[in-house]
TrEMBL record:
Domain of life of the source: Eukaryota
Stated name of the protein: YchJ-like middle NTF2-like domain-containing protein
Pfam families assigned to the protein according to its UniProt record, in alphabetical order: YchJ_M-like
Annotated source species: Chaetoceros debilis
The YchJ-like middle NTF2-like domain, residue ranges: 3-101
Length: 117
């Protein structure tokens, strides 16, 4: 998974790290995704930018379930994470790369907070 993320992230993305080895280790670190189990993913159709056909957006909804590492009070609890992802088409050959995302969640108390700002 880290290699795919690295290969498909646009250099303008705030998460982009020039040193690929450091980036891969960061993506593969223990605990990053260990406390939740993937339940489902829904993606809406791509929306193109009105002024630039090389910019597109996709809205995603991910359902995750807390596992035992979250403690007995949260284990089994499901959360929804939503992201509007921005993609840029560039390069030779032309390909789409992840450039940014606005992430929100349905967790009580932070429903209207952009989590990655």
């Amino acid at each position: 998974m880290p290699q795919h993320i690295i290969e498909t992230t646009h250099p303008t993305c705030r998460d982009y790290i020039k040193d690929k080895e450091v980036w891969a280790k960061d993506l593969n670190r223990d605990g990053m995704f260990d406390s939740y189990e993937f339940v489902s993913l829904e993606a809406e159709p791509q929306i193109f930018d009105a002024e630039d056909e090389n910019i597109g957006y996709i809205d995603f909804k991910v359902n995750l379930r807390a596992n035992a590492s979250n403690g007995p009070h949260l284990e089994g609890h499901e959360i929804v994470v939503r992201e509007r992802s921005k993609f840029i088409r560039s390069g030779k050959p032309l390909s789409w790369s992840y450039a940014a995302g606005e992430v929100t969640s349905d967790v009580a108390g932070i429903e209207d907070v952009q989590l990655n700002s």
